[in-house]
């Protein structure tokens, strides 16, 4: 896609609202110098390029017994259990949410299409891509502290993002993102329910995700699939997503139904996604298939049914990897996609909707982070003066873990958790209610369900009344 984080030209400047009218989606022509129109563009904190690796490699978990901790948690909600830092990755859950934006080019593509069916296809691909970064990510993100925030402005990608931990029990994270060209708004509130079932940990998704395409006056809503981590006691950890995701276009009545298939007994369905787009009269307009770890394709229902019937009749259909020539012939936009070996059985005549980003070569030593994820916690000189004092980048436990200082990270984690408990007791003693700073609880205007919506004002950077949580 050309969106590797080291190609960034810097964050959005409040003093300069100029944004390129067209985002360059070509990886071979992307700006690698941090310059626009012959001038070096420096963001508020002075960063010209984003980092491409973490300060210290990932530590080994082989010396720790997962079972000694988890055997006491069977059937319990894990959000209420204090977990050792050895199970974590050096990111807050608020930063993990921000990884939805890694494939923002799909939102840009949806905004550019005149055909509502093509817009829904791009939105469906975006919804699937949002969970793709979790592939092989078996580390647990840090639980955000109440009042914790995270901001990210990527002028090169054309968006800015703000999130806040609005509730501790139950844990609820609210986020809001907008296009710098004022072409979209993306927001939601997430409160996953984690449970341990003996051999696996399951994260049941709760909360609504909303994408508004302002130019087309359209709003889409959906909920993420269930995520499950297997072999937490013995064996190699692996992750799967399963469940039905329904994406609704509240303006046209179109709906996309995606079935994230469970692995099954012999693993035949592992990572597979199949579904369809239908209009308001429930007529199928196209079929979508692929894997959330690899790629997503679409074809017309007749072609799909014909292909499936030929399979059932015993026709020999060989799985093949789609070469660069095949992709070009089926989809003119495939030049923007990285070269990844497919295991998806390709149906002739299909159109490529999305393909996963190639990860950096040292990803396995960096908690299996993508290039985008590697950049999320970087803290350069001068950023403290710009960020809210509650920003994740300022958390000492995450910072020390990222730097490889595990002992100090563990002590800081315990200190922050104790400070949070003491603050909660003090509020209870004085009968003072907690007030969120950047989001408020109300009703989602499209689904009618409770939702946390952005109150505005964060980028005015008046942080005088932010709580002291670190």
TrEMBL record:
<feature type="region of interest" description="Disordered">
    <location>
        <begin position="1"/>
        <end position="38"/>
    </location>
</feature>
<feature type="compositionally biased region" description="Polar residues">
    <location>
        <begin position="1"/>
        <end position="11"/>
    </location>
</feature>
<protein>
    <recommendedName>
        <fullName>Oxysterol-binding protein</fullName>
    </recommendedName>
</protein>
<dbReference type="GO" id="GO:0006869">
    <property type="term" value="P:lipid transport"/>
</dbReference>
<dbReference type="GO" id="GO:0005829">
    <property type="term" value="C:cytosol"/>
</dbReference>
<keyword id="KW-0175">Coiled coil</keyword>
<comment type="similarity">
    <text>Belongs to the OSBP family.</text>
</comment>
<keyword id="KW-0445">Lipid transport</keyword>
<keyword id="KW-0446">Lipid-binding</keyword>
<dbReference type="InterPro" id="IPR000648">
    <property type="entry name" value="Oxysterol-bd"/>
</dbReference>
<feature type="compositionally biased region" description="Basic and acidic residues">
    <location>
        <begin position="308"/>
        <end position="331"/>
    </location>
</feature>
<dbReference type="InterPro" id="IPR037239">
    <property type="entry name" value="OSBP_sf"/>
</dbReference>
<feature type="compositionally biased region" description="Basic and acidic residues">
    <location>
        <begin position="14"/>
        <end position="29"/>
    </location>
</feature>
<feature type="region of interest" description="Disordered">
    <location>
        <begin position="308"/>
        <end position="338"/>
    </location>
</feature>
<dbReference type="Pfam" id="PF01237">
    <property type="entry name" value="Oxysterol_BP"/>
</dbReference>
<dbReference type="InterPro" id="IPR018494">
    <property type="entry name" value="Oxysterol-bd_CS"/>
</dbReference>
<dbReference type="GO" id="GO:0097038">
    <property type="term" value="C:perinuclear endoplasmic reticulum"/>
</dbReference>
<feature type="coiled-coil region">
    <location>
        <begin position="399"/>
        <end position="433"/>
    </location>
</feature>
<keyword id="KW-0813">Transport</keyword>
<dbReference type="GO" id="GO:0005886">
    <property type="term" value="C:plasma membrane"/>
</dbReference>
<dbReference type="GO" id="GO:0015485">
    <property type="term" value="F:cholesterol binding"/>
</dbReference>
